[in-house]
Design a protein that fits this description.
The structure is a single chain. Helix 1 crosses helix 2. This protein is mainly α and about 60 residues long. The chain has a domain of about 45 residues. It is elongated, with a radius of gyration of 13 Å. Helix content is about 75%, strand content about 0%. The N and C termini lie close together (about 5 Å). It is built from three helices and no strands. The longest helix is centred in the N-terminal third of the chain and has 23 residues.
């Protein structure tokens, strides 16, 4: 039975990634003391964190299968 924390549909994957981008935006904005904006947060997260986030997410999803 698939783990609901790791839904497999493309839309669910998009939603999970979007949630991480918003989390990164919030954390980055808090550190900066201002709203850094979605585009900056997206660009930074994609460049610095996306690859590792996907690896970890895939690893955990394989473990739960």
């Amino acid at each position: 039975m698939p783990d609901p924390a790791f839904p497999s549909s493309p839309y669910a994957e998009f939603q999970a990634e979007l949630a991480e981008i918003h989390r990164h935006k919030w954390l980055t904005s808090e550190k900066a003391g201002r709203d850094v904006g979605f585009e900056k947060a997206l660009t930074e997260w994609a460049g610095k964190h996306r690859q590792m986030w996907r690896k970890e997410r895939n690893r955990r999803s394989q473990k739960s299968s």
